[in-house]
Amino acid sequence: MVVEAGQTIRERLAQMTQDSSLSDQQPILWAPIRRIEREFRCWMRGDELLQASQYKTGARADHRPVDGYDIYSVEAAAKDCAAHFTPAAFYCVDLGEVAPHDFRVVEYNCINCSGRYEIDRGNLFRAMLGD
Question: Is the pTM of this model over 0.90?
Answer without folding.
Answer: no
